[in-house]
Each structure stands twice: as structure tokens, then as C-alpha cells.
Write a structure and sequence with these properties.
alpha/beta; Dna Topoisomerase Vi A Subunit, Chain: A, domain 2; nine-stranded mixed β-sheet; 21 helices
Length: 695
């Protein structure tokens, strides 16, 4: 990276350069009087160029006064931009004490900056300089030969210091923070220096995943930070402690803020400075993993300006900023101070909730209009999950329910919902053979129907409420009729509803999308199907909930139809299929996929209409003979589908085809082959290959 870019990174994209050389106070994006002439109309402004992200100056009264921070420095230093640019960069570096140096390769490297000042010698560090002893080899800090650190256990006073921010010993250990006895090194003037930790001036050391080592002296008057070992790339603290996926991540001003947030249950990282523009590669990574990226900077003028600027620069990634209700003073400016002042995680969640509500203020009108008003029924007519302790619907995952027309899918959905809204845990007989996890904390339960009319949806909601032994719909249960909305609007409404209800109810227990294929133009469109299922899977991860996808297709044995069926087969943690039994009126529920185990281990369950109960009731598990017949039928369907494309396959090829076709694990595929062979569905030839056995 060249010196120009490093100066921009170190100075808030040039804002601090303007403040240094421009002999007048100003606020970004607000007009002020140009100090270079008798300006009576406040025609000058410092603003962010949206294309470059760099601060610029413009005078609407005299266009001669327009340019970036380097143009201004050149004007103040009486230098020529074209011929003296290198000298201009050197002067900015020197005048602002940025600590940027040129090495022998003519590449500019940083040795310090604003908050991060390198040890420049005895006069800039401490009066305690003379190195009286050398640390042992294990105490030395390779590969930085000029700086050595001796560590010790945290004292009671030091733990008390961290504790006021909610940071306990376990958090310090998790984030690799250590207490130092002393630090010694050689200054740029080849003079030894030594910094000794004292009760009044403690010294702590941050370690990052890329071996960066930064020293923090919170009570030092002369210097608070220095690098003992610089990172190989961009400095990012806390990145390795983030979950793979989540709802929200904060970008804060410092390491202490990261740990304070983590100690209170929030995800956070920080870079080397609030004034630096966050690296785009890191932001892109966070954008893929989290629903929201929120800037949570200090509430002083520097923090506010940087927060506003970075929000503008990163608007392509929907980065937001959150301001804390703090004065901005030295002891009341950041999130660590927020918690130290007695504020709680619940209070921060309230601020987040207000931010989310503000974002969706306009779009919420649309999804609110789609919400079923249970107390005012429409005029026409009144109207997560285990099987035998085997999980089929889990948090962070998709759960698919499929079947043809009239097999009882809506009633089965009502049974799942009833278990999530009931005041007490329901018996499996009440939930049609399923064990539905109780929801005592009353997290949101959301039902989105893309097919049925509002009166019919009302009937289905009443069924769920009745099955849960309730007289009225709980406030945390929301049902939305989306049949009259466009396909694009349907998915937008689902996204918005999840985000709003997540914060309003303190989480989401269950989401049911009845008619998931109606979220795309064609269920056989591969690209659309992939994008939709990927998005739903991301949403399940964002909100730590189970999303039930109801697919109105008839499965082909153990394989779902269409591209959307294939994607669900690949992504869903569990798939149950409902089929109508001939001449009995029974509906049978079989397992097509379960992530942990084999579908063949899940019992074949039945339910049927009961006039007395005025609802579908559980009829129990089918007999072993019935289950065996269904198993053979499904396995034969799988085998026929496979050998339509190949007359014979080796054992390894057959395993691979089953894995790729049904999205099952290797052990399950091998179990299918064994059962096919035992039931006379396939046979082994003399050359050790397998083929479909003729019947």
C-alpha cells in the first residue's frame, strides 16, 4: 500500500488532514465560511465523495477552492501538487506525527499513529528506562527482536478494572488478554527503554489470531497503545470469536469494547482505529455471515464523524450505525462505559429494537396489512420437532413437509404449531405423533400462507388454537395471508416479519411457510430454486429458528420432485412426506430424510379424521409389516430411478449416486443398498457390478 493510501487510512480518509491544515472549525456536510477570503455567505463545505469514500472540499462561491486533503496541504505548504507530491506526503506525515516511514524498498510502512504510537524512545515512553535484566527465552516475544515482554497473573485490582465493564477472567482468557510485568525494547535512536507495570499504571497485552501483539496501558498519561508485533495484514480484533452465522455483529472502536459486548452476549470486532475505513474484504465476509452489521463507535465528535462517514462508504453492504445515549465525555463515550454506568444488555437490545423498527418503518405497513386480525374475522366464513426422540426439525435449519393434494398437510402443520403455542407441553397424540418442543418464553411463532384465502387461513389458525387447548390466539403467534401479494413481495414480507418479530418477542421459535414453491415463478427453475432455499437457510441461521417449508408435491419414493424439491432435499435437516392410504381414509407419514440417522429408522405414523373430536387424531405407528412394505416400495422406486440412467453400477458408483440423488450420508446409502439386495430389488453380477433385478 502506498503512502498516500496509508495517510488516508490513518486520517479518516483525509478528514483529519483538513482539520490540521484548515485554520477554521467545521462540521462535515455543513457549510462554513472560507478562511482564504472574506466569505460572507458560508459557501464552503467538506464532504465525502460517494465514489471514492475520500473527504473533499468545495466552495460554491469560488470554484477555485476545490480538492482533496492533499490539495489543501499543498496550498498551505506552498508546494506544487504535480512536482512536489512526494514531499507533500512527507510533510503531512511529519506535521501530523503519523509515524509512517519509508524503508529501503521505497514501500511505506506504518510504525504507529493516532492511538497507536510506537515506542520512540525513553523521552516518549516512561522515565523508567534502564534495562536492568533480560527476560528468559520463553518470555521473549518472537519474531519482534527489539521488544520483549514478561507476563504475570492478573492482580485483584486488575480484574476489578476489567470487571466494571462486565469482563471477567474467562472472557480475558478466551480473548487471549494477558497482564504484563514489564516491557523492554530498543528505540529508533538505539537507546534501551523499559516500561514497568505498576498498580496505578497497569499494562495489558492483546493477542490476535494473526499473531499481532498490542500493548494497552489504560491509565498512562503519555501513551496508551503500542504494537509489540504488527499483524501481517489488516488489524482485526475478535474476528476468530464470531459464530459462523448470526443475526447481528457490531464494529466498535476498541478491543475493550469488543470484550465488553462479548461478555454481555453480543458479537463484535474492531479495527486499529475508528477513523480508518474498514477493509472491504472483511465487510464482505461479515455481510455473508450476518443479517446486520452495525457501527457502534464512541460518542465523541471523532467517533460520530467516523460512524457517519463509514456508514456512507459501506452503504452497499447495508451497514447501519447505532448511537448510544451518552454525553461523549471521557468517562461516558463508548459501549464499555455504557455497561460500566450500570446499563444492561436488555437496555442495549431496546436500542437495537428501536433501530430495527426505524429501518422497517415504511415496509412494515405492507406486512402489517397482511397479518390476520384474529379478533376481527373475515366476513365470509368463520374460519421444533422430533419423532421418537429423533430430531427432524432443528434450530438454524429447514424442515420440509411434503405431500399431494388432500392428504392432510394443513392439519399436520396445525399440529406442529399447536405444540409451539400451547401453555403446557402437548402429548404426542395431540400433535399427531410428533414431539414438539414447548415454547415457555413465548418466542414468535409465524405462519405464512401463500395459497389459501383469508377465510380458509382463519379456519386453519382456529384448528391450531383449538388443538393447543386455547380459547384465543396468543399474541406471539402471527399468521399472514400472502396469496394476493406478488412473489417478490411475499419473500420481502417474510424477511421483514422475521426481523421485526425477532426483536419484538425476544426470538423466534418456529416459522411455517405453507406453499414454499409459490415464492418463485417456477418450482422447476433451478436458479430461482437454489437462490430461494439458500435465502431461507440463511434466515434460519440469522434468527436461530426452525423454518418449516411445506411443499405441495407428490414425492417419488424417497425423492422430492422439481428443482425446489431437490434443493430442499439437499438443505433440509429433516423431511416428512404424507401419503393417503388407499380405501382407509388414513394419512401415513413417512420420513424421507433425517440428518442424524437413517429415514428407515423412523416409524411409519398414521392420522385420520375423528368426527367426535372434530379434528384429525393420531392413529399410532403402523405395524412392522406395513412399514416393511412401504420401505420396499420406496427402495424399489429409488432403484428404478437410478438404473434408468445406467444398466449396471459398481458398489462405489451406486453409493455415490444414492448420496448425490437423495442427499444422504454414506452410511445411509450403504444401508439402502443392503436393504435393496436383501429384498431382491437389485442383484450382483459376476463382474461384481449391480443391476436392477427383473421381476
Amino acid at each position: 500500500m502506498d503512502l498516500k493510501q496509508r495517510i488516508l487510512n490513518r486520517t479518516g480518509q483525509g478528514l483529519d488532514v483538513f482539520r490540521h491544515y484548515l485554520n477554521v472549525k467545521f462540521t462535515p456536510n455543513k457549510r462554513f465560511k472560507n478562511p482564504y477570503y472574506n466569505d460572507t455567505k458560508a459557501s464552503c463545505v467538506i464532504y465525502v465523495n460517494k465514489k471514492t469514500g475520500i473527504y473533499m472540499m468545495k466552495d460554491f462561491g469560488d470554484m477555485e477552492y476545490a480538492g482533496d486533503c492533499f490539495w489543501l496541504a499543498a496550498r498551505e505548504l506552498n508546494m506544487d501538487m504535480k512536482n512536489d507530491f512526494k514531499q507533500i506526503l512527507r510533510r503531512i506525515n511529519e506535521d501530523m506525527h503519523l509515524g509512517l516511514l519509508m524503508d529501503s524498498t521505497n514501500d511505506y510502512k506504518t510504525t504507529g499513529g493516532e492511538k497507536y504510537v510506537a515506542a520512540n524512545g525513553a523521552d516518549s515512553v516512561s522515565s523508567r528506562q534502564e534495562v536492568a535484566e533480560k527476560p528468559t527465552a520463553e518470555e521473549q516475544l518472537p519474531p519482534q527482536p527489539n521488544i520483549k515482554i514478561s507476563y504475570k497473573e492478573f492482580s485483584e485490582e486488575e480484574l476489578k478494572y476489567w470487571g466494571k465493564y462486565g469482563i471477567k477472567a474467562d472472557t480475558l482468557k478466551r480473548f487471549k488478554v494477558r497482564s504484563a510485568k514489564w516491557l523492554s525494547g530498543i528505540s529508533k535512536k538505539d537507546k534501551p527503554y523499559k516500561i514497568i507495570s505498576t498498580p496505578t499504571e497497569p499494562m495489558f497485552v492483546y493477542h490476535t489470531i494473526d499473531d499481532a501483539v498490542k500493548v494497552y496501558m489504560p491509565k498512562s498519561i503519555k501513551q496508551r497503545f503500542l504494537y509489540a508485533h504488527r499483524p501481517s495484514g489488516d488489524y482485526v480484533y475478535g474476528l476468530e470469536h464470531l459464530p459462523a452465522r448470526g443475526h447481528m455483529v457490531f464494529i466498535t472502536g476498541g478491543e475493550k469494547d469488543v470484550m465488553s459486548l462479548a461478555a454481555h452476549g453480543f458479537n463484535a470486532i474492531c479495527f486499529n482505529s475508528e477513523t480508518a475505513t474498514p477493509p472491504i474484504n472483511i465487510i464482505e465476509n461479515l455481510h455473508r455471515r450476518f443479517k446486520h452489521i452495525v457501527l457502534l463507535y464512541d460518542m465523541d465528535s471523532t467517533g460520530k464523524d467516523s460512524s457517519f462517514r463509514n456508514e456512507q462508504v459501506l452503504q452497499a453492504y447495508q451497514v447501519m450505525r447505532l448511537e448510544l445515549p451518552l454525553s461523549g465525555s471521557k468517562t461516558e463515550k463508548d459501549i464499555s462505559d455504557f455497561f460500566a454506568l450500570g446499563h444492561t444488555a436488555e437496555e442495549l437490545n431496546e436500542l437495537i429494537n428501536e433501530l430495527i423498527q426505524k429501518i422497517y418503518r415504511k415496509s412494515s405497513v405492507i406486512f402489517k396489512s397482511c397479518e390476520l386480525d384474529y379478533d376481527n374475522p373475515p366476513p365470509e366464513s368463520s374460519s421444533v420437532v422430533k419423532v421418537n426422540d429423533v430430531p427432524v426439525g432443528t434450530c438454524d435449519n429447514l424442515f420440509c413437509l411434503t405431500g399431494g393434494e388432500g392428504v392432510g398437510k394443513s392439519n399436520f402443520v396445525a399440529a406442529i404449531i399447536s405444540g409451539s403455542i400451547a401453555e403446557d407441553e402437548l402429548d404426542a397424540n395431540r400433535t399427531l405423533g410428533l414431539t414438539v418442543v414447548h415454547n415457555p418464553s413465548e418466542k414468535a411463532v409465524l405462519l405464512f400462507d401463500t395459497e389459501q384465502s383469508e377465510p380458509q387461513l382463519y379456519k386453519n389458525v382456529r384448528k391450531a388454537v383449538k388443538r393447543a387447548y386455547l380459547d384465543t390466539k396468543p399474541k406471539f403467534f402471527h399468521a399472514y395471508h400472502l396469496s394476493e401479494q406478488s412473489r417478490k413481495e411475499r419473500l420481502d414480507i417474510i424477511r421483514t416479519s422475521l426481523d421485526v418479530n425477532f426483536h419484538h418477542h425476544g426470538g423466534i421459535q418456529l416459522v411455517v411457510i405453507d406453499g414454499v414453491a409459490d415464492l418463485v415463478r417456477s418450482a422447476n427453475d433451478e436458479l430461482e430454486s437454489v437462490d430461494l432455499i439458500d435465502e431461507l437457510y440463511r434466515l434460519a441461521g440469522f434468527y436461530h429458528c426452525c423454518i418449516v417449508c411445506v411443499l405441495h408435491f407428490v414425492p417419488n419414493g424417497m425423492k422430492l420432485r422439481g428443482h425446489i424439491g431437490s434443493e430442499l432435499q439437499r438443505k433440509a435437516a429433516g423431511i416428512l412426506a404424507i401419503e393417503k392410504e388407499d380405501n382407509t381414509g388414513f394419512s401415513n407419514v413417512k420420513c424421507i430424510k433425517v440428518r442424524d440417522g437413517s429415514p428407515l429408522d423412523i416409524p411409519l405414523m398414521s392420522f385420520a379424521w375423528d368426527k367426535k373430536e372434530d379434528m384429525f387424531v393420531y392413529m399410532g405407528e403402523k405395524s412392522k409389516e406395513d412399514k416393511e412394505k412401504q420401505k420396499v416400495k420406496d427402495l424399489r422406486s429409488i432403484a428404478q430411478s437410478i438404473f434408468e440412467k445406467a444398466s449396471s453400477l459398481t458398489y462405489g458408483q451406486l453409493v455415490t449416486v444414492i448420496i448425490n440423488t437423495l442427499e444422504v450420508q454414506s452410511r445411509t446409502a450403504k444401508e439402502y443398498i443392503r436393504n435393496m439386495r436383501d429384498n431382491g430389488i437389485i442383484e450382483q453380477l459376476a463382474d461384481k457390478t449391480y443391476q436392477l433385478k427383473m421381476t
